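Input for the complex:
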Amino acid sequence: MGCATEDVIAALRRVNEVIAEHRDELVDLDREIGDGDHGENMRRGFEAVMSKLDMSELDTPGAVLKLTATTLISTVGGAAGPLYGTAFLRAANAVGAATELSAGEVAAALRAACEGVVARGKAEIGDKTMVDALQPAVRAAETAMADAAALSAASAGGSTSAGGDGVPAVLAAAADAAEVGAESTVPLVARKGRASYLGERSAGHLDPGARSAALLLRALADAARKAAGGEAP
Amino acid sequence: MGCATEDVIAALRRVNEVIAEHRDELVDLDREIGDGDHGENMRRGFEAVMSKLDMSELDTPGAVLKLTATTLISTVGGAAGPLYGTAFLRAANAVGAATELSAGEVAAALRAACEGVVARGKAEIGDKTMVDALQPAVRAAETAMADAAALSAASAGGSTSAGGDGVPAVLAAAADAAEVGAESTVPLVARKGRASYLGERSAGHLDPGARSAALLLRALADAARKAAGGEAP
Amino acid sequence: MKKIINDPATVVADSLRGMAAAHPELLRVSTKPAVVARADAPVRGKVAVVSGGGSGHEPLHAGFVGPGMLDAACPGAVFTSPTPDQVQAAVSQVDGGAGVLLVVKNYTGDVLNFDTAAELAAAEGGDVRSVVIDDDVAVKDSLYTAGRRGVGGTVLLEKIVGAAADRKVDLDGCEALARRVIANVRSMGMALTGCTVPHVGEPTFTLAEDEMEIGIGIHGEPGRERMPAENADGIVRRLLEPVLEDLPFREGDRALLFTNSMGGTPLIELYLAHGIAERLLAERGIRVERRLVGPFITSLEMQGMSITLLKLDDEMIELWDAPVHTAALRWGA
Amino acid sequence: MKKIINDPATVVADSLRGMAAAHPELLRVSTKPAVVARADAPVRGKVAVVSGGGSGHEPLHAGFVGPGMLDAACPGAVFTSPTPDQVQAAVSQVDGGAGVLLVVKNYTGDVLNFDTAAELAAAEGGDVRSVVIDDDVAVKDSLYTAGRRGVGGTVLLEKIVGAAADRKVDLDGCEALARRVIANVRSMGMALTGCTVPHVGEPTFTLAEDEMEIGIGIHGEPGRERMPAENADGIVRRLLEPVLEDLPFREGDRALLFTNSMGGTPLIELYLAHGIAERLLAERGIRVERRLVGPFITSLEMQGMSITLLKLDDEMIELWDAPVHTAALRWGA
Ligand SMILES: Nc1ncnc2c1ncn2[C@@H]1O[C@H](COP(=O)(O)OP(=O)(O)O)[C@@H](O)[C@H]1O
Ligand SMILES: Nc1ncnc2c1ncn2[C@@H]1O[C@H](COP(=O)(O)OP(=O)(O)O)[C@@H](O)[C@H]1O
Ligand SMILES: [Mg+2]
Ligand SMILES: [Mg+2]
Ligand SMILES: [Mg+2]
Ligand SMILES: [Mg+2]
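Predicted:
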């Protein structure tokens, strides 16, 4: 069993909750090396996503992701708006018209999302941006996928799907890696975005966008686990 | 021996010192119930008086008082500038062309000064202004004069002058009364000047102008005592 | 105290030098005594309009010197009224033979110093009159105060009377017009923070995070009442209601609404407050026909605002719309 | 946090409503999405000049909408760049058939959002170009930063290019002129205090009584260096020298000197600083031929200032002097 439209919606609901809970933390991180709006921008954006989703009838995960993308683009503003917007847009394109997403499709969507952010923002690993959370997350997701595939190939003798209960594992791996990646931004000197104006003074602070990316992936992973009937680990 | 031109100049020098020493106190008093400039205005004014006196050759007390008046008018500004300016101008007119001032002339000059302030500012006793220091000072000076006259009439058999050593006594009496008068402004609600805008909130504060008037009279009294060879009481 | 200055004692003169440098074609600035006059003064045959007061309220008054408004301004020390010589010097620089009107804000110091100057000028044969503006409804005008203060209405008066003088209205006419403006204008102000006079070095008053001061003047003096800070709706209502009651303004009246920043309040907040005032006035049936929004009469860096309402007639509207070219107010020129 | 607002979430819209009320003849304001356009837009046959950015910098940009300057402005949330739909809505309101020039300040967020808007507009067939201004010399322009920020030079660019568009210069001409302004303008800013974003509620940074921040941007972000506060001479020198070196400006150059307040610095201090800058420039043989002094690109209530210097040519002078009629900048009209 894969990840259906209502699972994606539930996951975004969870993202909205988590972002709202962490709004002030993100604001504070952004005050330190930016302009203090990241938490409010993200909160405003996902709140808008929620009302858009409530008003719409959507029948594929791709449609949900696409509405999320356009809503973020038109309500977030700042650097994060177009970057997260592009991420969701690319993820939507990656999953196409599928009505249920396999773990493999989820991992592919993550890769597409991350590549979209890089294409738009031109940041590399180590520039102290959300890319420092997203890129390790993609790699971890793909490794988890490969592990799961190898495992199921070994045990079940070549099932074609990695299995619906692969989605929680893939997203959990992504979230774990994103958190580590976000933490890794602390000592870095920023080279992209507003924090780069601070030069050396940007070192010693967690990047707000990397933190929000890690929160977002953790919310998705929690939602996936819950959908699969899992409990807290 | 009365109060000669150089005595008046020395007395004004003392006034300048005392005002400079108390500048911050006057500023603070004016911050509480006014706009915080009284100390600086008075300091600027008497400093200007000093340089004007240094640059001028003056041969009567009246000329010194007149120069003081015009300098205060043209440098102090605010309410205090025209009020103290008028006070010195009226005092100058009162002493006329005399080259040495008797205690009686000093007392008369004080009365003229106080009347000038009242004529310009229309304040009455109890309005919480410099008049609350000046009017009691005038009365005390005149009482001291009368006492001294009675005393010298009784002892020396009707000397026409109350005597040069009357000046320190007259000014000391004026300064004492001015200090009491200034203190009496504390509980009052202001009815004139900027403090009146505060209504009831002006009660509980010493009026800055009453305080500067008391300081000024004390400085004059000290200078007169010193000129007469007296020591600290 | 944090200020972009060199020496508290020379702030006014230093600033005037910068103003002279910034407006070489418009202004002629002297510092001893301090006078800011329009570059082409005296204008022959025109009533000269002169104002002045303590510094720290910029752009008032020097920022309003120029064609269509003031002929000269006399800036005193910070929050200290100017001295009579300044006023006299200004008068003699700008008297174009048609008389001089002194615009005096009602503070004891200003009134006394301008009165002295007017006496001196009259002694020299000039036709010098003065009008005293007292539009601040926060202060009760009674025997027990120095009367109401002159605040925001001053800006409107200087514009309207300046325009009349520009059209060669004579001294009687200018004086009568000024009195009509004074009779029809009311203001009220409030502060969220105090301000620091350079030579004092500490704020004239301090407010807690949850306090505001209602009924302030423009000299950093405490207001009439300290109370819990309110939102914009509450603040605007507290300013507007006493203003409306005092004249009183009535349904159908035409008005100029002037929403003024005390200096430190950002424009985004000021426009927000202005919008509320417009709404409240519309609810009362008062027709706002002209408006002015910005920091025009300030108390250094104080955060706060004031509202001024002028009841308009056709002549005032025409004069308000007339061209003006000053450092702070400019249109049609 | 002390502000004259009702609700941090609605500050921008509430303020825009007040702005609409204040300038009914000049502006047409919509709030969903937020766009401030000149009332007579679109002007047929004229290049439309559109700018935008986070709010909190007022009067930039909405205060510069009107004949002779911007056709529309897109105000984002406070200190947050606007979204592509806002820009698109603005473009479609003002496109008069001669193309649209987007003036973008160089911040990642602004560039990304305007780029997206330009792509969308191009897809609909409009001739939409954008220029990115990056005049802040405090930031090293290198591979290791997001490049220099757009600050005070934006105001000058919008005036000059707005005047060219007004004279029916075509899109190529306007774009080339904008690039010439960008190539010739440099700025640097400093702060004595931080500022408080309404939805944050606390200052973005705090400085001790004896500290200042040099090389700040306009978003309340910390600057490049924190150092002991200096007097006005020291501050102006620290701003002016890197500006002069960067272009570099040379003896004999003609320049426009723009002395800008970050919002909370009183005019008395700003003129004082301006006077110092004029003196320093005169000493270097740089001829200041035009000047602008005031709060034109701000960071809410921040106390501080910036200096912008534009190397002038005859065409820029003529366009600077051309009539302009906006809420914040007005002359000759
Ligand atoms: N070029 C970029 N590439 C990727 N991420 C970026 C880039 N620039 C900024 N970011 C991310 O955006 C975050 C800031 O977002 P936000 O505060 O919403 O926007 P703004 O900087 O415009 O105020 C940063 O913490 C960083 O992670
Ligand atoms: N009408 C008046 N008559 C007498 N004294 C007055 C009057 N008004 C004000 N004063 C005195 O002036 C003092 C304030 O002087 P100052 O601070 O220099 O002027 P300002 O009030 O203009 O700032 C008050 O403390 C009061 O003693
Ligand atoms: Mg930010
Ligand atoms: Mg005072
Ligand atoms: Mg004063
Ligand atoms: Mg931002």
